[in-house]
Amino acid sequence: MDRYAVFGNPIGHSKSPLIHRLFAAQTGQQLTYEALLAPLDDFSGFARTFFQTGKGANVTVPFKEQAYQLADSLSARARRAGAVNTLSKQADGSLLGDNTDGAGLVRDLTLNAGFSLAGKRILLLGAGGAVRGVLALFLAEQPAALVIANRTVEKAEALAQQFADLGPLFASGFDWLDEPVDLIVNGTSASLAGELPPISASLIQPGHTLCYDMMYGKEPTTFCRWASEHGAARALDGLGMLVEQAAEAFFLWRGVRPATAPVLAELRRLLA
Ligand code: ATR
């Protein structure tokens, strides 16, 4: 049977094995998928050993940049992201690195939430790997304007420069912004600590603005609670993005696109 895995450290709580096993069952694909704890001091050795027999792997924290270095060739979107979350062994034995995170978020927003990004005013909070990974895909949807706001403004400015050729992209500090936008995406890791980026509630137009947290949890995240309290039309967490990025990887490996809705429903049920 074809062998797949997700590499991370830590990896114990990964939902990827469950997601990919559900995809495989649904599509009748014969494969195994396991969660593997990769050593912090030898990611590339570990990955190379796996690929002596393995067909493909997802890569999560903290190895996405190392996977980018390891790959023999890169998709355009992985090159832009500077990070790889999906490795595929090619017929000649080489490793292709791709990044399905941005496509996963865009699919969750456009297909699942029915929110078109074209012509919209969009605010992205954060300037780390999570935001970098989705910028090119967001700009490809042709928003009216995309603002990256970050606590450390210099990091937002650097990202805005690197992606400036792809569309109308601006950098900002959190407290410079007060005009309502159509979409706010939280790509900071603040939710992990139960914290909130210090942005003005006036960015939310009640009943109109969609708020999206790339994080998810059993309970609504701090950001989603804040959004709901201030009248956001919807406050969505990142579980849909997780399932969609996995579906993109599955499609890349197997050439079959699984239906994501039943898998997302099952994950929600298990989380609760
Ligand atoms: P990731 O790869 O998940 O994006 P990262 O590269 O460490 O992780 O980036 C974390 C992001 O969350 C950064 O934009 C960080 O802001 P700084 O660049 O100023 O450090 C942001 N962040 C983390 N904790 C935060 C908090 N409590 N409030 C606001 N922003 C926070």
Q: What topology emerges from the helices and strands here?
A:
Blueprint: E1 2-8, H1 16-27, E2 31-37, H2 43-50, E3 56-59, H3 64-70, E4 73-74, H4 76-81, E5 86-89, E6 95-98, H5 101-112, E7 121-125, H6 129-140, E8 145-149, H7 153-162, E9 169-172, E10 183-186, E11 210-213, H8 222-229, E12 234-236, H9 239-254, H10 261-271
Parallel strand pairs: 1-2, 1-3, 4-6, 7-8, 7-10, 8-9, 10-11, 11-12
Antiparallel strand pairs: 3-5, 5-6
Bound molecules: 2'-monophosphoadenosine-5'-diphosphate.
Q: DSSP strand (E) fraction?
A: 15-25%
Give the C-alpha Rg. 18 Å
Order of the strands making up the biggest sheet: 2-1-3-5-6-4
Number of helices: 10
Ligand set: 2'-monophosphoadenosine-5'-diphosphate
Function: Involved in the biosynthesis of the chorismate, which leads to the biosynthesis of aromatic amino acids. Catalyzes the reversible NADPH linked reduction of 3-dehydroshikimate (DHSA) to yield shikimate (SA).
Protein name: Shikimate dehydrogenase (NADP(+))
Domain Shikimate dehydrogenase substrate binding N-terminal: 6-87
Subunit structure: Homodimer.
Account of the 3D structure:
There is one protein chain. The protein has ten helices and twelve strands. With 272 residues, it is an alpha/beta fold. It has two domains: 2-99 and 242-271, Rossmann fold (3-Layer(aba) Sandwich), CATH 3.40.50; 102-237, Rossmann fold (3-Layer(aba) Sandwich), CATH 3.40.50.720. The strands form two sheets. A six-stranded mixed sheet has the order 2-1-3-5-6-4, sandwiched between helices. α1 crosses α9 (239-254) and α5 (101-112) crosses α9. Bound molecules: 2'-monophosphoadenosine-5'-diphosphate.
